[in-house]
Amino acid sequence: IDLLGAATRDEQVIVPRKGVLELNRLLEGDGDVEIALGANHIRVQVDGIRLTSKLIDGRFPEYARVIPNEPRNVITADRNLLRQALQRTAILSNEKYRGVRLELGSNSVVLQANNPEQEEAVETIEVDYSGDSMEIGFNVNYLLDALAAVDSEQVEFGVTDANSSCLIREPGGDRTKFVVMPMRL
Q: How far apart are CA 4 and CA 7, in angstroms?
């Protein structure tokens, strides 16, 4: 394994999810970090602890192409209220696809889910929205993951239409962005 040069070399590698989670735990403390990169492995050493992980072969996708620049329709909602409504609605979603339909209307979002047993959940929450009326479907797990990662009390959902990706972020913030692709329901 060769050591990387003094941060002047531009390298791109893909570390498996489990390796990233362990690396995150390892980097929680203070101390110098030493990174070594090989053809198929990465080694990180912090305070006498060494983590070695295999790398995933390939190039990371051009993710910037799927991030919407300025979505036409922006929903602003209370993050906890929306998260709790999604959790309740998800109970009756299809266990395999986890689909939830969002019906966007003037200052409201209607959340709908159903399953093969013909059970249905419908919940309406109040939001700040004055854009186009539309229906859009998502895997509820992806929405919940994004909402769990937002730190603010409010959250923005930006959508262009029912077939475009959804941009989730803190209101007015560009520090973190979450993109969730829609699904047909």
A: 7
**Secondary structure class of 181 (helix, strand, coil):** coil
Phi, psi of 112 (to 5 degrees): -135, 140
If we measure between CA atoms, which residue out of 44, 40, 43, 36 comes closest to residue 56? 40
Question: What's residue 2's pLDDT?
Answer: 42
pLDDT at 6: 46
Task: Enter the pTM of the model.
Answer: 0.73
Number of neighbouring beta carbons within 10 Å of residue 61:
9
- Rounded to whole angstroms, how far apart are CA atoms 42 and 27? 15
* pLDDT for residue 1 is more than 60: no
The 10 Å Cβ neighbour count of residue 35 is 15
The residue to which tokens 């019906």 are assigned: 103
